[in-house]
Every structure is written in structure tokens, then in C-alpha cells.
Design brief:
- By secondary structure, the chain is an alpha/beta fold.
- The chain has helices spanning 13-24, 31-41, 44-55, 61-72, 90-98, 113-122, 161-175, 177-184, 197-209, and strands at 2-6, 28-30, 81-84, 105-110, 123-126, 132-134, 153-154, 188-192.
- A hairpin with a 5-residue loop joins strand 5 and strand 6 (132-134).
- Helix 1 packs across helix 9 (197-209) and helix 2 (31-41) packs across helix 3.
- Bound molecules: adenosine monophosphate (AMP).
């Protein structure tokens, strides 16, 4: 089962992808996490991406498509995967098709902008494994320490309020057109993001199975 999770930054794609991938036994692939890892390791892709990521702009298609292509060629993707944060442009969606990747469903998680802004200000991510937390909705067991790997949990530079607005604008302009793109192909299912993570998971699983 090859799935795409679509939605604005902070809609809960990553959180739901982590939950659903455990249930379905397929990996969740976050291009954002892979890019942050590349930045941390100072790879050529990371060096090219850093400035744009910090500003909340998209990283050029060729860089992201290259990273994604290598990742889905790995063994653990044989039975399927969840793409979280890819595609983010129609060009990226077309690139997936050209790679011969068949997508079964596109799940859009829809959350109003006011909620997005509040959610992102409380979001924290693990510097080590990229797991995501929220100060209120999904706190770590020990403050500031990742439950899964024990590394430090921090606020992302691009989750600061001034960058969030520009990321939402980028989403509206470049990524939201993908809703129509996949709707026309009869692949889109929309889930309304709930306040409780578990409630959104139930709706997401129902949308995948339905
Ligand atoms: P995310 O963790 O999905 O919010 O992504 C963080 C940042 O990484 C984004 O604001 C972009 O700068 C970059 N990024 C992640 N995925 C993509 C993508 N598919 N295309 C372009 N840029 C991306």
C-alpha cells in the first residue's frame, strides 16, 4: 500500500504517519526529516537546502526528488510506504508517476489556519530520530528528552511564528493545488484533523481502509 499524506504544516501528517505506519507495517517517509538529517550531516543536499528550509521556502524539486527516489528504492519500501511531506508541488507528483510509483490513496488532513498556528508554536522535534511531540497534546515523558531515542527535543527554527506564516502561504500557493490534482484522479480522501490525536488516527485509518 503506497500512501501520500497531504496537508498544511502542522496538520498532523507526521504524527499520523508514525501511528499508521506501525499499524500497517510499512515505513513512514518524511522528506522534511531526511532534509534536516542532511543539513545536520552537512551533505551537499543539506548545504543546498538549509537556507530555504530556515526561511520556510521549498527546497528545489531536483534535490528532494533525488532524496526521495533513493529512499523508496530501499528494501523496507517493498511492501509500501507512507509519504509525509512529499509531493509538495505538482511537478513532484508528476516525478513520482515518471518513476513508476503507483499511489493507492492520498489522505488529506485538513485543519484550519488558526489551529495550525497554535499547534506549531507548541511543536517540538527530536534532534536524534526526528520524532515529533507537542508541549500540550503529546509531551515527552521526561521534559526535553525524546521517549524513543533519548536525544534532545527542540523547537524547529521554521516553527517560529514569523516563519510559520510564510510556510502557510507556500502551502496555499504550491502544495494545495495537489488536492485538485489527486481529486481528479479519484484518489483523494479528506480527514478533518481532530483535537485528540487518537480521534484523527481513527478517521485516518477508516479513510485508508474505506
Ligand atoms: P516538513 O518537515 O515536512 O515541514 O519540511 C520542512 C521543510 O523541508 C519545508 O519547509 C521545506 O523547506 C523542506 N521540504 C520538505 N519536504 C519538501 C518537499 N517535498 N519539497 C520541497 N521542500 C521540502
Amino acid at each position: 500500500m503506497n500512501l501520500i499524506f497531504l496537508g498544511a504544516p502542522g496538520a498532523g501528517k507526521g504524527t499520523q504517519a508514525e501511528i499508521v505506519c506501525d499499524k500497517l507495517g510499512i515505513p513512514a517517509i518524511s522528506t522534511g526529516n531526511m532534509l534536516r538529517e542532511a543539513v545536520k550531516n552537512g551533505t551537499p543536499a543539506g548545504l543546498a537546502a538549509k537556507e530555504r528550509m530556515d526561511k520556510g521556502d521549498l527546497v528545489p524539486d531536483d534535490i528532494v526528488i533525488g532524496i526521495l527516489k533513493d529512499r523508496i528504492a530501499q528494501d523496507d519500501c517493498k511492501n509500501g510506504f507512507i509519504l509525509d511531506g512529499f509531493p509538495r508541488t505538482v511537478e513532484q507528483a508528476e516525478a513520482l508517476e515518471k518513476m513508476g510509483v503507483k499511489i493507492d490513496k492520498v489522505i488529506e488532513i485538513s485543519v484550519p489556519d488558526e489551529k495550525i498556528i497554535a499547534r506549531l508554536s507548541g511543536r517540538r522535534v527530536c534532534e536524534g530520530c526526528g520524532a515529533s511531540y507537542h508541549m500540550e497534546y503529546k509531551p515527552t515523558k521526561t521534559e526535553g528528552i525524546c521517549d524513543s531515542c533519548g536525544a534532545k527535543v527542540v523547537q524547529r527554527v521554521d516553527d517560529k511564528p514569523e516563519t510559520v506564516l510564510s510556510r502557510l502561504e507556500t502551502y496555499r500557493e504550491k502544495t494545495a493545488p495537489l488536492k485538485g490534482y489527486y481529486e481528479n484522479k479519484g484518489m483523494l480522501k479528506t480527514v478533518i484533523g481532530q483535537d485528540e490525536i487518537a480521534d484523527t488516527s481513527k478517521l485516518t485509518l477508516a479513510a485508508i481502509e474505506g
